[in-house]
Amino acid sequence: MPYGLLALLLLAVALFLALRSRTRAQAAAPPPPSPPPGVSSGAMSGGPLSRDELAAKLRRLSESKPPAQLNPGAMCYSTARPPETAEYLCPRCGARTHYSKNTVVVRLIQRELPSMREAVKALPGIEASLEESELCSKCQPDRPAVPLPTLAVHHPDGSVTRTRGVGMDDLKLLKEFLEGKPAHAGGRDAETSLKKHLSRIGELLGVQVPEGAQE
Ligand SMILES: [Zn+2]
């Protein structure tokens, strides 16, 4: 049976070559395009919302009824001592800046900044980034006594709205607003009507708050 064996061998070789060329073709395929680092592409499929669309959304909120029930928030006893020093690691240039005796900045670096970075990336429907150069001694040698992060909202028309000194609470407001929530969960999850924060939301997004809006 030499012919039968030969045929089997040829078949095996052909199969091997076919499989190899297929995996090669897959490896050669270009990777899918990724958004630029540090900028959230927005979870909505139709791209980021324009200023007009954001203004219309803000108007709808101003005309909506405040929620009937609000969570009063849970009691919480914190015994953790606040940290006294912090080292800021710049995500842009890699330099380390040491802070001590600056309670606001130490607290910001240790407790808020990591979650703020994540929160900015996760904002749905807008393109936003967190600018931290004030915190880095190399990126900004002449920095203010209390350096603060700045939220930058990149609009589809190319303009940018910048707000210096944003906190985690601001980013929560934006997320709740963009997701269409009626209430804002503040400290210890105590809720307030989101309508009470119209002016801050408008400021952060660079959008005019409708005139005569009831907060
Ligand atoms: Zn830097």
Rg of Cα set: 26 Å
The general outline is globular
Distance between the termini: 91 Å
In the predicted model, the low-confidence regions spanning at least 5 consecutive residues are 25-29, 34-43
Largest sheet: 3 strands, antiparallel
Structural class: alpha+beta
Helix content: 25-40%
Series of secondary-structure elements, N-terminal to C-terminal: HHEEHEEEHEEH
What is the percentage of strand-forming residues?
A: 5-15%
Strand order of the largest sheet: 3-4-5
**How many helix segments?**
5
User: What is the number of E strands?
Assistant: 7
Q: Which molecules other than protein and nucleic acid are bound?
A: zinc ion
Mean of residue pLDDT values: 83
Assembly context of the chains? single chain
Write up this protein:
This protein is 36% helix and 14% strand. By secondary structure, the chain is of the alpha+beta class. Strands 3-4-5 form a 3-stranded antiparallel β-sheet. A hairpin with a 5-residue loop joins β6 and β7 (191-193). It starts with a helix and ends in a 10-residue tail after the last helix. Mean pLDDT is 83; it is low at 25-29 and 34-43. Zinc ion (ZN) binds next to loops.
